[in-house]
Amino acid sequence: MSESNSQPSPISGFPSRDDDDLTADLDLGFEGAEDIMRTWRRGMQPDPDLTVSEWADQHRWLSSRASAEPGRYRTARTPYLRAIMDALSPRHPAQRISFMKAAQVGATEAGNNWIGFVIHHAPGPMLAVLPTVEMAKRTSRGRLDPLIEDSPALRERVKPARSRDAGNSMLSKEFPGGILVLTGANSATGLRSMPARYIFLDEVDAYPASADEEGDPVTLAEARTTTFSHRRKVFMVSTPTIRGLSRIEREFEASDQRRYFVPCPTHHLARSVPAVQLASLANWRCLVPAPYLNRPRPSSRCPRPPRICDPCQKVPCRSPLVKKNRASQRRCGHEQT
After folding, report:
1. Which position among 192, 211, 301, 324 has the lowest Cβ density within 10 Å, counted as fewest Cβ atoms?
2. 263-271: average pLDDT
3. Cβ contact 261:278 at 8 Å
4. Which is it for strands 233-238 and 198-202: parallel, antiparallel or unpaired?
5. Burial 252-265, CB ≥16 within 10 A → b, else e
6. What is the DSSP string of 200-248?
7. What is the pLDDT of residues 77-129, one digit of tens each?
8. How far apart are CA 319 and CA 43, in angstroms?
9. Which residues of 288-318 are buried (b: 16+ CB within 10 A; e: fewer)?
C-alpha cells in the first residue's frame, strides 16, 4: 500500500501531529495552551472497541477485601464467564442474558465487570437489584466500593461517597453520562423509581414473590427498560432452588441453553465433543455418552494425545475430575448449546 501525504480532515476526529491548519487562527501563546491542545487531541480519539471481558482484563483490579486472589483480573482464570460477559457488550445483539449456575463460580464478579464497563465505556442509567435492600447496601460496601477504588479508570469517573453529596451515596453512584442505582427486590419504590438501560438482577431465586404486593420484582424491574427498546441489556443471575418453581430455571429453559464443557482427564476428548458439564465446581463428573468416545480430534489448546475409549460403553463415564487439574481443564473447555 502506498503512503498518502494528504492531511486528515478536522471533521474525521483524527487530527494529525501537525495542527497548523486547525490552530492557525487561535492565539496559543498563553500558559497552558499545550495542555489544552493535548487534552483536546485525547478527547477526539474514539474509545477502543472492547468487549466486557477485554475491558476487565485491561482495567479491573481485584481488592483483598473482595477476592481471595487480589491483583489484576484475569478472565483466563474463569474462561466459562467470557462468552457471558461478551454477550453483555453493546455490540452483541442479545438483550436478555440468563445465567443459571452453581454457587461461588464468579457470576457476581462478571456482573461487577459489566458495571465497570458501563461506567467507563457505555454510560447510561443502570439498575442493580439484590434480594433485599440490606443486601444491596452490603454489596455496595463490600464489592462496588472496592471495584471503584482499586480500578483507576473507574476511580476518576465516580466521586467518593460523601454524606452531603446526594448523587453519590451507598445506593447511588453517579458518573459522567449515567447513574448506577442499587435497590432490593423487596422495595417496589426502588424498582419503579427510574428508567434504566441496563438491569442487573442478582440471585433472582431469592427474590420475594411480590414486591410490596405490587407484583413480581423481575417484571417490575424489566419494565424500567421499555424506553430503551432494542438498546437495553438485562443480566439475570442465580443459583437454582426448587425445580419447577425456580425463576432462573424458567429463564434458562426459555433461552438457547448454552453450557460450558471441559475435557475429561480420562478420555482427553477434543473441544468439539461435549465432555464435562460445569454443573458444580465442587463435584465435576464426566458426562461423556458412548457415541462420543470414538477417535476424538486433538485440540491445539489441549495437545495431549486423545485416547480411544471402549465403544461398547453404554453409560456416561462419570469419572471425577481431580481438583488440582480443574484450572487447566477449564482453559481447555468450550461452550455448546
Report:
1. 324
2. 51
3. yes
4. parallel
5. beeeeeebbbbbbb
6. EEESGGGS-SSSTTSS-HHHHHHGGGGGGGGG-EEEEEE---STTT-HH
7. 888 899 999 999 999 999 999 999 988 888 999 999 999 999 999 999 999 99
8. 56
9. beeebbeebeebeebeeebeebeeeeeebbe
pLDDT tens digits for range 8-28? 444 344 444 444 555 666 667
The amino acid at residue 155 is R
> Residue written as cell 426459555?
254
C-alpha cell of 102?
452453581
CA-wise closest residue to 266 among 246, 292, 230, 233: 292
Given a contact cutoff of 8 angstroms between Cβ atoms, the answer to whether 7 and 18 are in contact is yes
pLDDT in tens, 172-193: 999 999 999 999 999 998 888 7
61 touches 148 (CB < 8 A): no
Separation of alpha carbons 27 and 48, rounded Å: 32
Cα–Cα distance, 337 to 332 (Å, whole number): 17
Residues in the chain: 337
SS3 letters across 126-186: EEEEECCHHHHHHHHHHHHHHHHHCCHHHHCCCCCCCCCCCCEECCEEEECCEEEEEEECC
Output the CA angle 112-115-117, nearest 5 degrees. Answer: 110
